[in-house]
Amino acid sequence: MTHVDPYFRKLTGNYLFSEISRQVAQFQAIHPEKRLIRLGIGDVTRPLPAAVVEAMTAAAAEQGTPAGFHGYGPEQGYPFLREAIALHDYQDRGIHVDPDEIFVSDGAKSDCGGICDLFAVGNTVTLCDPVYSVYLDTNVMAGRAGEFDPATGRWSGLLYLPCTAENDFVPAPPAEQADLIYLCFPANPTGAAANRAQLQAWVDYANRHDSILLFDGAYEAFVTTPGVPRSIFELPGARTCAIEFRSFSKTAGFTGTRCAYTVIPRELEREGVSLRRLWARRQATKTNGVCYVVQRGAQAVYTPAGRAQVAENLAYYRRNAQTLRAGLTQAGLTVYGGVDSPYLWVKTPKKQTSQDFFRLLLEEAGVVTTPGSGFGPHGEGYIRLTSFGEAGETQEAAARIAALL
Ligand code: MLT
Question: How far apart (Å, rounded) are the C-alpha atoms in residues 283 and 261?
């Protein structure tokens, strides 16, 4: 008799974005005439920068020659990419990160999920509420959650940090002992950015409590407000308590190409064990890394041409965010986020539930959003929109929503 993993079995329903896709596909099948505008999942629409395409084309050609062929690559990623990341994303900004503290991977999602492997089951997991559901679901799968209570929408055994308009969607450290603390700033889904003092409070808490900060910096490139940290390693003390996840997906359009990286400082140890070494061991066992061609493409992001083209894409998405903020605010909605973030967190009007407002926008305006309740109980009463759409469609979506309301 084969037994199925009991923790996986606890997971209720589908992964959030699979569930939204299901509902949208069902609606589209009944109404094939409706032209939907998709501002739900945060998938980019700008093509890859030309510098990336050129580098990948050249690398693909290399792979077809005896002299240029690459088989298995270094498990941690090619030095040429790790050195470019360390230099441009950290050292040029005065942040101490060395190439051998960087692990190249196929996605921040994979790494945020995989990092669970390093920690014992009994650790208390601390999550923002609302939260990117990957942090929650992977810990349920790993056996760190108790039981799901449909009445509260929460799992026992986890520590939830409410992110509300009252605390500007940035929670303070709790009074209790928290072991594994997931933070994502600029935040998915609320679009909130944490300032230096707020992040310093978390770093100090983690060092005092021997906790680990699992810091998802996937949206750092969207920060425009002066003084808002783009990396947890800008904060003194972070090297002894934090792991950072970064991605090329939202900056350089790699959602379909796949490349990201995780930073684990050399100083980061618990119970005398180096977490950097442990992650190296885990990665070497479970993955053969990211293909050479893609890593050459990611390296090209840091060339002068690549940087200029990425900056253009970011400016394009920022304009979309402004379009949505202005249009929805004018339509009478209360809008958060969309300044240092590609996500807009919008209060539902007339106390509608997230799901009802999501359905209304889908059915009457033909605009796909994400119901805030899908991100946790404190997401109820909100929907999330992304600024990653095509510019014309984004303008049209704002106009359609305004016309409906
Ligand atoms: C989102 O929409 O929250 C993100 O696109 C999901 C992801 O990056 O995995």
Answer: 12
